[in-house]
Amino acid sequence: MQISRPQRAISQAALIGVGVLLSSAVLVRYLTYKAESTRRLSGRRVNVSGESIHLLDRGEGPCVVLLHGNGSMMEDFASTQLVEALASKYRVLIFDRPGFGASTRGTGPWTPEREAELLDETFRVLNVSSPVLVAHSWATLVALNLALKNPTGLKGLVLLSGYYFPTAQADVVLQTPASLPLIGNVLRNTVLPLLSRIMASSTFKTLFSPRAVPTVFERMFSVPMASRPSQLKSVADDTVGMPSFARDISVHYEDIHLPVHIVAGAEDKIVTTSEQSARLHRSLPNSTLDVLPGVGHMSHHVDPALVIRLVDELSSRASPVFEGTSAKTRAFG
Asked: Which parts pass through the membrane (predicted)?
Protein backbone atom coordinates (compact mmCIF):
# COMPACT_ATOMS: atom_id res chain seq x y z
CA MET A 1 0.00 0.00 0.00
CA GLN A 2 1.48 3.32 -1.08
CA ILE A 3 1.54 6.15 1.45
CA SER A 4 0.41 9.49 0.07
CA ARG A 5 2.54 12.60 0.36
CA PRO A 6 0.20 14.27 2.94
CA GLN A 7 0.20 11.11 5.06
CA ARG A 8 3.99 10.95 4.91
CA ALA A 9 4.23 14.59 5.95
CA ILE A 10 1.89 13.99 8.89
CA SER A 11 3.91 10.96 10.00
CA GLN A 12 7.16 12.88 9.80
CA ALA A 13 5.69 15.78 11.76
CA ALA A 14 4.41 13.36 14.42
CA LEU A 15 7.83 11.74 14.74
CA ILE A 16 9.49 15.12 15.05
CA GLY A 17 6.95 16.15 17.69
CA VAL A 18 7.54 12.99 19.71
CA GLY A 19 11.28 13.51 19.42
CA VAL A 20 11.00 17.08 20.68
CA LEU A 21 8.87 15.99 23.65
CA LEU A 22 11.25 13.17 24.55
CA SER A 23 14.25 15.48 24.31
CA SER A 24 12.46 18.07 26.42
CA ALA A 25 11.60 15.45 29.04
CA VAL A 26 15.24 14.37 29.31
CA LEU A 27 16.38 17.98 29.59
CA VAL A 28 13.74 18.78 32.23
CA ARG A 29 14.81 15.80 34.35
CA TYR A 30 18.41 16.96 34.24
CA LEU A 31 17.48 20.56 35.06
CA THR A 32 15.31 19.38 37.96
CA TYR A 33 18.16 17.34 39.43
CA LYS A 34 20.56 20.26 39.01
CA ALA A 35 18.13 22.73 40.61
CA GLU A 36 17.52 20.55 43.66
CA SER A 37 21.21 19.80 44.16
CA THR A 38 22.39 23.41 43.88
CA ARG A 39 19.71 25.32 45.82
CA ARG A 40 21.44 27.83 48.05
CA LEU A 41 18.86 28.18 50.80
CA SER A 42 18.66 25.12 53.02
CA GLY A 43 16.97 24.68 56.38
CA ARG A 44 15.68 21.81 58.47
CA ARG A 45 13.02 19.20 57.79
CA VAL A 46 10.23 17.86 59.95
CA ASN A 47 7.99 14.92 59.14
CA VAL A 48 4.34 15.67 59.78
CA SER A 49 1.39 13.46 58.84
CA GLY A 50 3.35 11.76 56.09
CA GLU A 51 4.74 14.98 54.62
CA SER A 52 8.31 16.26 54.73
CA ILE A 53 8.19 19.96 55.54
CA HIS A 54 11.20 22.18 54.87
CA LEU A 55 11.64 25.31 56.96
CA LEU A 56 14.04 27.92 58.25
CA ASP A 57 14.06 28.46 62.02
CA ARG A 58 15.63 31.74 63.12
CA GLY A 59 15.82 33.69 66.39
CA GLU A 60 14.23 33.23 69.80
CA GLY A 61 11.14 34.54 71.54
CA PRO A 62 7.44 34.64 70.65
CA CYS A 63 6.86 32.95 67.31
CA VAL A 64 6.17 34.57 63.94
CA VAL A 65 5.35 32.34 60.96
CA LEU A 66 5.84 33.48 57.35
CA LEU A 67 3.90 31.74 54.55
CA HIS A 68 4.67 32.43 50.88
CA GLY A 69 2.14 32.51 48.06
CA ASN A 70 1.44 30.36 45.02
CA GLY A 71 4.42 29.50 42.83
CA SER A 72 6.89 30.83 45.35
CA MET A 73 9.19 29.43 48.04
CA MET A 74 10.77 30.53 51.31
CA GLU A 75 13.25 32.65 49.32
CA ASP A 76 10.47 35.19 48.83
CA PHE A 77 10.46 36.21 52.50
CA ALA A 78 14.15 35.40 53.01
CA SER A 79 15.09 38.02 50.41
CA THR A 80 13.32 40.81 52.33
CA GLN A 81 14.53 42.75 55.36
CA LEU A 82 11.80 41.11 57.43
CA VAL A 83 13.61 38.00 58.58
CA GLU A 84 16.70 39.62 60.08
CA ALA A 85 14.67 42.34 61.78
CA LEU A 86 12.05 39.97 63.19
CA ALA A 87 14.61 37.36 64.27
CA SER A 88 16.23 39.93 66.58
CA LYS A 89 13.24 39.61 68.94
CA TYR A 90 11.11 36.70 67.70
CA ARG A 91 11.43 33.08 66.72
CA VAL A 92 10.81 33.25 62.98
CA LEU A 93 9.67 30.22 60.99
CA ILE A 94 9.70 30.42 57.18
CA PHE A 95 8.18 27.45 55.39
CA ASP A 96 8.37 25.99 51.95
CA ARG A 97 4.65 25.36 51.71
CA PRO A 98 3.65 21.77 50.78
CA GLY A 99 4.36 21.15 47.10
CA PHE A 100 6.80 24.05 46.85
CA GLY A 101 10.54 24.23 47.32
CA ALA A 102 11.72 21.17 49.24
CA SER A 103 8.40 20.35 50.97
CA THR A 104 6.32 17.43 49.77
CA ARG A 105 2.62 17.38 48.94
CA GLY A 106 0.57 14.21 49.24
CA THR A 107 -1.74 12.76 46.64
CA GLY A 108 -5.41 13.57 46.40
CA PRO A 109 -7.16 16.95 46.39
CA TRP A 110 -5.18 19.68 48.11
CA THR A 111 -7.09 22.52 49.72
CA PRO A 112 -6.28 25.45 52.02
CA GLU A 113 -8.26 23.64 54.72
CA ARG A 114 -6.09 20.53 54.38
CA GLU A 115 -2.96 22.66 54.45
CA ALA A 116 -4.18 24.53 57.53
CA GLU A 117 -4.64 21.22 59.34
CA LEU A 118 -1.11 20.18 58.38
CA LEU A 119 0.26 23.54 59.52
CA ASP A 120 -1.53 23.22 62.85
CA GLU A 121 0.01 19.77 63.35
CA THR A 122 3.42 21.16 62.34
CA PHE A 123 3.13 23.78 65.08
CA ARG A 124 2.62 21.02 67.63
CA VAL A 125 5.64 19.10 66.34
CA LEU A 126 7.79 22.25 66.55
CA ASN A 127 6.41 23.22 69.98
CA VAL A 128 4.98 26.46 68.63
CA SER A 129 2.18 28.16 70.55
CA SER A 130 0.16 31.26 69.70
CA PRO A 131 2.22 32.50 66.74
CA VAL A 132 1.54 35.59 64.69
CA LEU A 133 0.87 34.28 61.19
CA VAL A 134 2.01 36.40 58.22
CA ALA A 135 0.65 35.10 54.91
CA HIS A 136 1.06 36.36 51.36
CA SER A 137 -1.27 35.94 48.37
CA TRP A 138 -2.69 32.37 48.08
CA ALA A 139 -1.42 31.49 51.56
CA THR A 140 -3.89 33.95 53.09
CA LEU A 141 -6.55 31.31 52.45
CA VAL A 142 -4.53 28.89 54.57
CA ALA A 143 -4.21 31.47 57.35
CA LEU A 144 -7.94 32.20 57.37
CA ASN A 145 -8.79 28.49 57.42
CA LEU A 146 -6.49 28.04 60.41
CA ALA A 147 -8.12 31.00 62.14
CA LEU A 148 -11.46 29.21 61.79
CA LYS A 149 -10.09 25.82 62.80
CA ASN A 150 -8.06 26.88 65.82
CA PRO A 151 -8.71 30.52 66.74
CA THR A 152 -7.23 30.17 70.23
CA GLY A 153 -3.99 28.81 68.75
CA LEU A 154 -3.03 32.06 67.00
CA LYS A 155 -2.16 35.54 68.24
CA GLY A 156 -3.43 37.11 65.04
CA LEU A 157 -3.00 37.37 61.28
CA VAL A 158 -1.16 39.71 58.93
CA LEU A 159 -2.58 39.14 55.45
CA LEU A 160 -0.66 40.49 52.46
CA SER A 161 -2.20 40.96 48.99
CA GLY A 162 -4.58 38.05 49.32
CA TYR A 163 -7.36 36.50 47.24
CA TYR A 164 -10.44 36.15 49.45
CA PHE A 165 -13.53 36.10 47.23
CA PRO A 166 -14.33 34.18 44.01
CA THR A 167 -13.74 36.62 41.17
CA ALA A 168 -12.64 35.97 37.59
CA GLN A 169 -8.89 35.45 37.24
CA ALA A 170 -7.14 35.02 33.88
CA ASP A 171 -4.52 32.74 35.39
CA VAL A 172 -7.22 30.18 36.28
CA VAL A 173 -7.89 29.68 32.57
CA LEU A 174 -4.20 29.68 31.69
CA GLN A 175 -3.33 27.07 34.32
CA THR A 176 -6.20 24.68 33.55
CA PRO A 177 -4.34 22.58 30.91
CA ALA A 178 -1.42 22.03 33.31
CA SER A 179 -3.80 20.73 35.99
CA LEU A 180 -5.41 18.05 33.78
CA PRO A 181 -4.50 14.40 34.53
CA LEU A 182 -2.96 13.29 31.21
CA ILE A 183 -2.11 16.28 29.05
CA GLY A 184 -1.09 18.20 32.15
CA ASN A 185 1.43 15.54 33.09
CA VAL A 186 2.95 15.68 29.60
CA LEU A 187 3.10 19.48 29.60
CA ARG A 188 4.61 19.72 33.08
CA ASN A 189 7.38 17.28 32.24
CA THR A 190 8.31 18.69 28.83
CA VAL A 191 7.61 22.21 27.62
CA LEU A 192 6.16 24.04 30.64
CA PRO A 193 9.34 24.05 32.77
CA LEU A 194 11.25 25.53 29.85
CA LEU A 195 8.57 28.15 29.20
CA SER A 196 8.46 28.96 32.90
CA ARG A 197 12.16 29.80 32.87
CA ILE A 198 11.77 32.00 29.80
CA MET A 199 8.81 33.88 31.30
CA ALA A 200 10.26 34.31 34.80
CA SER A 201 11.60 37.82 34.24
CA SER A 202 8.31 39.19 32.90
CA THR A 203 6.41 37.43 35.69
CA PHE A 204 8.57 39.10 38.33
CA LYS A 205 8.05 42.50 36.71
CA THR A 206 4.27 42.01 36.88
CA LEU A 207 4.42 40.94 40.53
CA PHE A 208 6.49 43.92 41.64
CA SER A 209 5.02 46.54 39.27
CA PRO A 210 5.04 49.53 39.47
CA ARG A 211 8.23 49.06 41.51
CA ALA A 212 11.41 47.51 40.16
CA VAL A 213 12.25 43.91 40.96
CA PRO A 214 14.70 43.98 43.90
CA THR A 215 18.19 42.80 43.02
CA VAL A 216 18.37 40.64 46.15
CA PHE A 217 15.15 38.86 45.14
CA GLU A 218 16.50 38.15 41.65
CA ARG A 219 19.70 36.82 43.17
CA MET A 220 18.11 34.62 45.84
CA PHE A 221 14.96 33.31 44.18
CA SER A 222 15.68 30.03 42.37
CA VAL A 223 13.83 30.05 39.05
CA PRO A 224 15.05 26.51 38.29
CA MET A 225 13.49 25.24 41.55
CA ALA A 226 10.26 27.09 40.82
CA SER A 227 10.14 25.58 37.31
CA ARG A 228 10.27 21.91 38.32
CA PRO A 229 7.36 19.68 37.21
CA SER A 230 6.27 18.94 40.78
CA GLN A 231 6.08 22.61 41.69
CA LEU A 232 4.28 23.50 38.46
CA LYS A 233 1.64 20.90 39.36
CA SER A 234 1.12 22.55 42.74
CA VAL A 235 0.89 25.95 41.04
CA ALA A 236 -1.72 24.70 38.57
CA ASP A 237 -3.81 22.87 41.16
CA ASP A 238 -3.80 25.80 43.59
CA THR A 239 -4.65 28.29 40.85
CA VAL A 240 -7.50 26.31 39.31
CA GLY A 241 -9.03 25.56 42.72
CA MET A 242 -8.66 29.12 44.00
CA PRO A 243 -12.17 30.44 43.18
CA SER A 244 -13.91 27.49 44.83
CA PHE A 245 -11.57 27.64 47.84
CA ALA A 246 -12.40 31.32 48.31
CA ARG A 247 -16.12 30.71 47.85
CA ASP A 248 -16.16 27.96 50.48
CA ILE A 249 -14.49 29.99 53.21
CA SER A 250 -15.88 33.45 52.44
CA VAL A 251 -19.28 32.60 53.94
CA HIS A 252 -17.51 32.08 57.29
CA TYR A 253 -15.49 35.29 57.50
CA GLU A 254 -17.90 36.88 59.97
CA ASP A 255 -17.06 34.02 62.36
CA ILE A 256 -13.39 35.02 62.53
CA HIS A 257 -12.83 37.19 65.59
CA LEU A 258 -9.05 37.10 65.73
CA PRO A 259 -7.30 40.42 65.17
CA VAL A 260 -6.41 40.64 61.48
CA HIS A 261 -4.23 43.24 59.79
CA ILE A 262 -4.82 43.40 56.02
CA VAL A 263 -2.21 44.96 53.73
CA ALA A 264 -2.66 45.58 50.00
CA GLY A 265 -1.01 47.47 47.19
CA ALA A 266 -3.15 50.06 45.44
CA GLU A 267 -1.62 49.07 42.08
CA ASP A 268 -1.68 45.28 42.46
CA LYS A 269 -1.80 43.66 39.00
CA ILE A 270 -2.48 40.15 40.36
CA VAL A 271 -5.57 40.76 42.49
CA THR A 272 -7.87 43.78 42.61
CA THR A 273 -7.63 45.44 46.01
CA SER A 274 -11.17 46.83 45.98
CA GLU A 275 -12.64 43.39 45.20
CA GLN A 276 -10.46 41.47 47.64
CA SER A 277 -8.70 43.20 50.54
CA ALA A 278 -11.18 46.07 50.93
CA ARG A 279 -14.10 43.65 50.83
CA LEU A 280 -12.46 41.34 53.36
CA HIS A 281 -11.93 44.30 55.67
CA ARG A 282 -15.66 44.98 55.59
CA SER A 283 -16.38 41.30 56.31
CA LEU A 284 -14.06 40.81 59.29
CA PRO A 285 -15.23 42.35 62.56
CA ASN A 286 -11.72 42.82 63.99
CA SER A 287 -9.56 44.05 61.15
CA THR A 288 -7.50 46.95 59.90
CA LEU A 289 -6.71 47.70 56.26
CA ASP A 290 -3.57 49.41 55.01
CA VAL A 291 -3.63 50.27 51.30
CA LEU A 292 -0.21 51.31 50.01
CA PRO A 293 -0.18 53.80 47.10
CA GLY A 294 2.29 53.05 44.32
CA VAL A 295 2.70 49.45 45.46
CA GLY A 296 1.83 46.23 43.64
CA HIS A 297 1.49 42.63 44.78
CA MET A 298 4.74 42.40 46.78
CA SER A 299 4.03 44.82 49.62
CA HIS A 300 6.28 42.97 52.08
CA HIS A 301 9.29 43.80 49.91
CA VAL A 302 8.34 47.46 49.54
CA ASP A 303 7.35 48.24 53.15
CA PRO A 304 8.79 45.62 55.52
CA ALA A 305 8.71 48.18 58.34
CA LEU A 306 4.91 48.22 58.19
CA VAL A 307 4.74 44.43 58.39
CA ILE A 308 7.10 44.45 61.37
CA ARG A 309 5.00 47.07 63.15
CA LEU A 310 1.82 45.06 62.58
CA VAL A 311 3.52 41.93 63.93
CA ASP A 312 4.64 43.91 66.99
CA GLU A 313 1.08 45.12 67.58
CA LEU A 314 -0.31 41.59 67.47
CA SER A 315 2.47 40.06 69.52
CA SER A 316 2.09 42.62 72.30
CA ARG A 317 -1.59 41.83 72.82
CA ALA A 318 -2.39 39.79 75.90
CA SER A 319 -5.59 38.55 74.32
CA PRO A 320 -6.06 37.24 70.75
CA VAL A 321 -9.27 39.29 70.44
CA PHE A 322 -9.58 43.02 69.82
CA GLU A 323 -11.58 45.14 72.22
CA GLY A 324 -14.78 46.11 70.43
CA THR A 325 -15.92 45.24 66.95
CA SER A 326 -15.15 48.30 64.87
CA ALA A 327 -12.61 48.09 62.05
CA LYS A 328 -10.55 50.89 60.62
CA THR A 329 -8.90 51.71 57.33
CA ARG A 330 -5.52 53.37 56.97
CA ALA A 331 -3.73 54.66 53.91
CA PHE A 332 -0.02 55.34 53.74
CA GLY A 333 1.60 57.65 51.27
From this structure: 12-31
CA distance linking residue 140 with residue 161, whole number of Å: 8
Q: Is 326 helix (H, G, I), strand (E, B) or coil?
A: coil
Using the predicted structure, report yes or no on whether residue 11 has a pLDDT greater than 90: no
- Among residues 85, 91, 86, the alpha carbon closest in space to that of 60 is found at 91
Alpha helix ranges (H) inside the chain: 5-38, 75-78, 82-87, 112-125, 139-149, 170-179, 183-188, 191-208, 215-220, 223-226, 229-250, 277-283, 299-302, 304-315
The residue segments making up the domain with residue 155 are: 38-331
Confidence of residue 333 (pLDDT cuts 50, 70, 90): very low
Instruction: Report CA-CA distances (Å) from 23 to 20, 26, 89.
Output: 5, 5, 51
Q: Region 25-36: what's the mean pLDDT?
A: 80
- For residue 217, the number of C-alpha atoms closer than 13 Å in the C-beta half-sphere is 22
- Report if residue 159 sits inside a domain: yes
pLDDT number for residue 323 = 41
CATH number at residue 106: 3.40.50.1820
- In angstroms, the CA 164 to CA 160 distance is 11
